[in-house]
Specification:
The complex is a heterodimer of chains A (146) and B (406). Chain A is an alpha+beta fold and 146 residues long. Chain A is built from 4 helices and 4 strands; from the N terminus they run H-H-H-E-E-E-H-E. In chain A, strands 3-2-1-4 form a 4-stranded mixed sheet, covered by helices on one side. Chain B is an alpha+beta fold and 406 residues long. Chain B is 48% helix and 15% strand. In chain B, a hairpin with a 4-residue loop joins strand 3 and strand 4. The chains are: A alpha+beta (146), B alpha+beta (406). Chains A and B meet through helix 1, helix 2 and helix 3 of A and helix 4, helix 6, strand 3 and strand 4 of B.
Chain lengths: 146, 406
Amino acid sequence: MKTQIFLILLLTSSMCQAQTKVIAHKSHGGSRATFAKAYQQNLFDISRTNFGLPDREVVVVLDTLIAVNDSITVMKWRESNSCHPFLSSHKDLKDSDFNYKTDTIINHEVLRRRNTATLIRNYGTAIYPIEFRHTIDSVVFIGFRK
Amino acid sequence: MRRFGILAHQGLLLFALLGAVFIPFSFRGLQVQSKITQCIFEDVILSFASLFKLAYVANSAVSSDSTTLYLLVVLLFLVGVFLAVVFSIIHVWKRHSLRFVQAIHLVLTFYLSIVMLKYGIDKVFKAQFYLPEPNTLYTPLGLLDKDILYWSTMGTSHTYNVFMGLLEIIPAVFLLFRSTRIMGLFALAGVLLNVVFINFGFDISVKLYSSFLLFLCCLLLAPSMNALFHFFVLNKSASLACATGKNLVISSPKRIAFKTTIIFVFFVESLFPYILNGLFNDDNMPRNYLHGAYEIFEVTKNDEDANTVNLNLKRLFVHRHNYLIFQYDDDSMEDFHLEIDPDQHQFLLTNYDGEIIFLEYKYLETQKILELKSPDLGLTIYSKSLPWRDLPLLQPLFHWTVDIVQ
């Protein structure tokens, strides 16, 4: 369940809706007065929207996968605390630009200790419950079969 | 007089070209555009604004309908006119002016095509006019501003979004081919006129950019206006001439390769995010599991008597882009940026003054009850999930005849 929750959270945060700054602000109940504050100070996700089109996204990085036992794998990952231009590299961001997170994956078909890191890498990035754009080579695998 | 007309036309073309290059549009693969614009024009715009006390600049970034965008457009217009005057006395320009004008025409045509493709595809995949958020659905109609009302109304009909999207995509594709280029521009002029008046009529803050696109379309149509007038009004035969790359790139294979590359880049730019995410209808995108509307049925103070207190709260909402919104009895709303810590079962709320509030949350899945507790204030809010997707506005109503309306 928790895995599913995280999957949902991430899919939600990494896609951007197309709208103007004002409409985006009003869509979450923001008033005209608070828009002025948000716009002047670039608060929250206001820089995410522009010409009625989406152009920015949250940067997600998968750092480490740790096989605890045959059914449990721990995933350490991070997401940027603000939106950045589409296809931005996480290497251009500072450590403090990220929120660090840990999640547990239970009974995943592929992400489990009995598989080797090489085999898991060969599956690509689509099998993970988070969506990230960097290559799988930079992910550290710990505790998987040699 | 004719010389002035040519000069004015070239000035407008150069202004349009500068606009296409420097107005920082939301190109996914060309984020450097906004950096270049900022680097070249930011100081000039701010000096311009302060020197002449023209307008209040709340944010120095150039974005849609910002004061800085208006000032940028004015600056680009002045630069365009200046360049046209300067070029008119340069020998190389005078000698090859026809080819330069043709090249600018082609660049502007492709620019218009990619922009309209992006807008059209975003409509088809329901990413522009998205499903209204629960807090919008529970706001009385009269309390909504025109822009969010228009956006939300459009967001309730997938069919109309697909239709509107195709109305932009088809002319945009027509612009890519010489034989259909004028027809595409002609159709696009109607589409863009509608867009401009929607933006002005509903106070949607893409007024300047949509006007710029309409201006581009009219500018590209201008050389054909005489022929179109003869054909449509005077009912006479007329032949249309449009910009073509034949005079610019003589080699046919090179021209085909260049055009194929451009078309490929255009479709990658507009379709890539959807293919990457495998999601082709934003309405079906998974939401945060707490996303939704909640009716507040009790607020208690954790004192000795555990009294029920009245904070005039009616509902609360969890927005898909991580906001927590409270709706009061008078239907006014207060929104907070929300960060959820599922491990600690905590909400971290931030208001527009930067103040942070911690709330502990508990969600009872079977009863669909969300409890929010403030240890600092000693308050607990009990709320029950509302079936917001069952609201009449979101039902797929369609009736061929009024007789079957029930």
